[in-house]
Amino acid sequence: MKYAIELFDEMKPKAKPTVTKFGGVNDLAPVTTRFDGEKYENPIYSHWRSMLTRAFCPKYHAKHPTYIGTTVSDEFMTFSNFNEWYRQQYGWDKFWHLDKDVRGDGKHYSAENCILIPHALNLLLTDSDASRGAFPSGIRWHDPRGMLMARVCENGKPQRGKTPYFDDVIEATEYATKLKREVAERRLRGDIPDHPSYDEIEAAVYASLDLRAVEQRAHAIRCKQIAIVGIDYRIQNVYALRLKDEQEAAA
């Protein structure tokens, strides 16, 4: 079985390039193909299209406001340029994710600012309370127990081991912060030990975790203060879910 990316090694210039709704120029074909009865989309094209969505889609910004103000270089606005750059990067054949936070300011996609890193590390760099509910990242309300639950995902899956429950949001946040650092250490050692930009990535991941920890502790303190004046964690969760539903309906 071929990897999906290998199916697109022989792409050719399109006779008539097309312009996407966000202004990108798709000048290579094909971007989809069939193999062994299955339809595949070029993974590099998927990354390019996702980049444009994150930078320019109002609906995406409504759900992920941290991407408001994101820009894309003129070079990356054309798919053939992006495809050529992507295939020259370390990890391209592993379908790694596009990252603009390690080298850049987190707001501009360009050949100079971007590298490829595994999805699990990209999540650690882009994790933000801005898109969360009532509580800091990693903290959820568990209605059956009537307690807060601290749980951190690794590669999109809940981290193995015990899932602790807490009555205090600050304690839960400190525990989740510790779990995230353990995930980062494991992923750095296991996923990119030979990456030519390892030192840059490691420094960026830990700097991001430290920044998020400060933000999340402040968030936890606000939640506790609200609970002290009479709006308990369960009610805070209800309010947050209601607000999320209203925002999604408006979008």
Question: What can you tell me about this protein's structure?
Answer:
With 251 residues, the protein is α+β, with helices and mostly antiparallel strands. It is 43% helix and 18% strand. The chain has seven helices and 13 strands. The protein has a three-stranded antiparallel beta sheet with strand order 9-10-13, covered by helices on one side. A hairpin with a 5-residue loop joins strand 1 and strand 2. Helix 4 crosses helix 6 and helix 5 packs antiparallel against helix 6. It starts with 11 loop residues before the first strand and ends with a helix. The mean pLDDT is 90.
Quick recap:
The chain has seven helices and 13 strands. With 251 residues, the chain is of the alpha+beta class.
